[in-house]
Structure formats: C-alpha cells, structure tokens
Specification:
Blueprint (H helix, E strand, L loop, with lengths): L1 E6 L6 E7 L5 E8 L2 H9 L2 E3 H5 L7 H8 L8 H12 L15
Antiparallel strand pairs: 1-2, 2-3, 3-4
Length: 104
C-alpha cells in the first residue's frame, strides 16, 4: 500500500491518499480530506486504471477529469499527488517525496 499525505498550503486542508494495487494495473483508492470538494471526489475515485492515469497527457487523465468535473481549484496539488501515488503503486516509479517551496 502507498500512502500519500498532502498539506495543500494556504487553504489549510490536509488530504491522505491510500492506494493499493494487486496487479499493477488497477488500483483501489481511499481518500480522506478536510476539503469538501475532495470529499465529493473521493466518492467517485474508489478505483482507477494506473496506466490510463500515468501515461495520459497532463489534464487528460481520469483523475484530472474527475477534479475538473467538481470544479477543483487549478492549483490544488491533490490530483498530482494521486497520480504520483498511482505510479508507485503500479511499480512505475520509486517512492520519492515531491515538494513545492514558495518564497516571495
């Protein structure tokens, strides 16, 4: 099982994504979030095709389509975090942290 913890920044919402795959093709997702939009999205993203998400062009994957459908904020890091988690769960990438560091 892969667990991805997202601390989204100024919105103050945290999200925990748990992804499991038995065949490196399909994955089950459990998404818990303080964000109401992501709570709605989590009800739809219970299962996902790893290859369709990880090899799609940015914005064209099923994960991003679901976020678009629910009018998620464009800068929300959660769809990217889900995609990264799917890569690891499918054996397509090693687990390495991703970080945004904003300075002004």
């Amino acid at each position: 099982m892969v667990t991805v913890n997202v601390f989204a920044g100024i919105c103050g919402f945290s999200t925990t994504i748990k992804i499991e795959s038995e065949d490196s093709r399909m994955a089950t997702l459990q998404i818990e979030s303080e964000c109401e939009i992501i709570q709605k999205i989590s009800a739809e993203l219970l299962e996902s095709d790893i290859f369709k998400n990880c090899f799609a062009q940015i914005g064209d994957s099923p994960v991003y389509h679901t976020f678009r459908k629910h009018r998620s904020h464009a800068a929300c890091p959660v769809p990217s975090a889900i995609t990264k988690g799917l890569e690891v769960a499918g054996g397509l990438a090693l687990p390495r942290d991703v970080q945004f560091k904003l300075e002004s």
